[in-house]
# Entry
Amino acid sequence: MSFFRYIGYPISSDLKLSSWFKLKTKLLRVSLLCSQKMILLIFMLSWFLTSCSIENLPISVEPADPQIAVSSLIGPSETMFVTLSRSFSALSAEDVNDLTQDALNRLLLDNAFVTLEYAGFIDTLESVFDIQGLYGTQLQRFEDFQLMKLTVFDSTTSETISAESLLLPQVEVDSLVVSRRDTSLNFLTDFSYNILDPIGENFYVVHAYQFTDPDTTQTDSTQNDVFFSDGGFLIYEQLLTDRGAENGVIRKDDVIEFTSSIDSALVVITNVSEGYYNFLEARKRSGGILSSLANEPVNHPSNIENGVGYFSAHRPRAVIVVVKEGN
Amino acid sequence: MNKLYVLLILFTFSSSLYAQFTLSGHIYDNNDGEALPGATLFLTETKSGAATNVYGFYSLTVKESTFNLQVSYLGYEQLDTTITLTKNTNLDFYLNEQVGEIGEIEVSATRLELQEEVNSTRMSTFRIRPEEIQNIPTLGGEADLIKIAQLLPGITAGNEGTSGMFVRGGTDDQNLVVLDDAVVYNLGHLFGFFSVFNADAIKDVDIVKGGFSADYGGRLSSVMDVRMNEGSQQRYNIRGGLGLLTSRFTIDGPIIKDRMSFMLSARRTYIDRVFKLLGTNLPYYFYDYNAKLNYKISNNDRIYFSSYFGDDVLAFDETSGEDEGDEDLNFGFNLGNFTSTLRWNHIYGSQKLFSNVTLHQTRFKYDIQGDFIANSLLIRSQIQDIGVKADWQYFESTENKYVFGAQSVSHFFRPNVVSTSGDIGDFVDNRKGDLIENTEWAIYGGNERDISDQLKLNIGIRYSFTLTEKKLYSGPEPRLSARYKLDDENSVKASYSLMRQYMHRVSSSSIALPTDLWYPVTRNVKPQRSHQFALGYTRIFPKNQLSLTIETYFKNLNNLIEYREGASLILNDNFERELIAGKGDSFGIEFLLRKKYGSFTGWVSYSLSKTSRNFDDLNNGNTYPTKYDRRHVANLISMIELNDRVTFSAVWSFQSGAWFTPQTGQFLMPNASFTEIELIPIYGSRNGTQLSSSHRLDINFILKPRGKRRFGGEWHIGAYNFYNRAAPFRVDIQSNGVNYEYVQQGLFGFIPSIAYNFNFSSK
# Structure
């Protein structure tokens, strides 16, 4: 019985205990409770202290051979843009932000011979905007679903890569509404859009940017001069298939949480090929802490022969939308 | 064909033409009245014998009316007696626990035990004894059944310290783990670092890797059959332990002496309390309870009820302070198993037919819940099984035994229930979690008989089926084991098993997460299937009390399930599109030298194996090794009684490195709008690089008081990873200050442990 008293069990007042015994019991109880905690604390501390941290072991991994990496889009004025860079060792850098200008200069290809073959034309892409690794050409003929064949020759390494893609039509947006809502979660915004879905199996990617340029006051603009802009940052990305489209319309109601109160947002909607969709999906799936720690790695599909990346003749539609006040 | 049937009938009933009597009963521990499964009975005149079944029941039908019988069980004194039969007789035997050095009679007993290993058709099977679970050192000094199983040949562990078991090239979800016949879905606490099995509550464990008998089914790779203590029929026992991470308490004893007994066991961590003392709020803990009740209605009828309940709980509760702007945040999870089993043993009038009918129920669920300001979120998934199994064992004679039975398990799945309130409902949809029901059925039968003094066969057939989405999956599962005895100390064994699996765990992770879900087969996802062939050689060395087994196997696996790269399975009701089917092979050779008797016990094991997989949609369709395809695995386990007060145990374990898919390169890639640039990783071939081999020494000293006392206490002082060597489990890219380099990370270094175990027995 006394054991229970010592560890804090309440002592009934009707017990006939002498005052001396009560005092002794109380002191014992307090000291035992203190000593129990102290013993446990010392015990655990000494355990943690005597446990050894373990040293990592080195390992040798065969690095991948550098290859030419390709990305592309059709931008304003029916211009095909292609970026060319060189893949590099996984040990070179951990984060894109760590890349120095020198490193970028080494990685971006500025002396490649780039040609685009389509509809009986063969264009040579030239370096544009004085941006290293960025090549472009204004297309002489522009028809939906025309075959585009890209060939790149790097004279430094004598490598040749090639890829093919169909020119995809631009998305027709039926409606696009961004409206701020009154909510306990700050800067929550309703985002609704309808995409006209043409016949056939289609794939889309939707981006929304928190547009921070204070001078941008255009409403429902279809200006395409927002590419290569750093006036905003990506806040929403959605990959869509046309499964679930009704009467040729894909309806999507979503919610975006911006990081500050905004007056306008940039929305970019693009019709992409299934292959490029799979590439983007792989990129999305490979993100996340849990994924990187616990899941098997995700390889990105590629349509580049002898290279990496993806050659895609897609035409993003960019819309700047004024945020409406919600109900 | 008719001739064949006549031959089969003659084969089946040929041994019943003689006048015979049956001696049957149970074999018990004389100290506490617990039944002893696997105890042996040996007739010296005929040099034949039998072993008790898992309920301690035996039945001997003999031609002789008078014979000498030796009854023995590991760790108990041998009982020699002369029996005279004039009619069918029921006779229970009570064996005394062996104390001190083994004498001449005990040497004879160990010989009988060893002899059974040569005589039996069973192969690829290992029984773990409770004292091995208690004494073998493990991580953190916590007695852990799964960690011991991982030291057996043919079983490899997953990541260091976790409860993963990969048996002969199988996956973790291909192991049937049952606790008193109820399936246990989640084997680990704390993300698998602790087993759900409380060592104090376990009576014994059988692990079967191949040569499966017909009554086992439902998984491809292994069976771990765990049985709980029944509780003493004679006296009250209290035992428990105080460890660094957990404490345990168990009490058992008679409710009605010699008729009814109980066992209650509980365990809890105090990780949360320790962190609180250290000033850190980590409100995580786990606990589990085991309970068992058994009642001997008569000599022929006995019922058992057992139950397990255990949870992992994390409960952050950050309620707002007095300052304005403080925000309430409650977050946590609660996951765990609940099993219960009701069994009825019945011995029919002839004393030759033994039956066991089991009703069992299992539930595994997890809840993840959070509250933030005026928002709340609850995610729940649950699987519940309700099943019935009826087994009959017919002991025709010492040379001829039949088993047959039927089994049905209904699975009720309710995955991905989501309930939200507040604005969070805009991001996460509410889901009621549709109930998915599925039932598996199986009927089976088998016959074990001596064809000659040398040849013994165990032939069985199981027919299993399930109906799902109006699609019937069914098929026979033949089982065959054979033993050819070269002499009293040598035998050769062979086995073949076809297994079908109608359940699989949905997990895209390379590690077992408690949130992984189980699903039945569907119209599109076919049952997994395996064929396993094994050939073995058993030799015993009675003088040295050693047994040696060498087994080689080949396993072919079909309709294996994998997941597309990057598959997102969390809250994914349409996970089927993420599944892909493939095949695999595994083959290897295993050596096991074991000493179960005396003051020096333990085993040495070595496995050489190779396991591969092939999926059209993975690794460009090329065959690749599985992550835990460890080519060489060697284990040395020793327990030495240095004197009557000190026992020393040690484990040295070596294993080839696991395989992984390294990132070998990367490239720059703008997004689809050319507004942001990202680094895209390039990986080598799947599991194309092998981690370094690892080896580790764990030690443990057990200090106990001199002599046998009613109250006994013993200290366990040990160390995990004694020489502090990393067992690599993943590869990372790290900066060394100048460059980046690949490094292999280990989890646990040298970890000392100390625990105090106690026991008390009433008079």
The first strand of chain B starts at residue 21 and ends at 29. Chain B touches chain A through 76 residues (CB under 8 Å). The helical segments of chain B are 2-13, 104-119, 130-135, 145-149, 271-277. The CA atoms of residues 274 and 280 of chain B lie 9 Å apart.
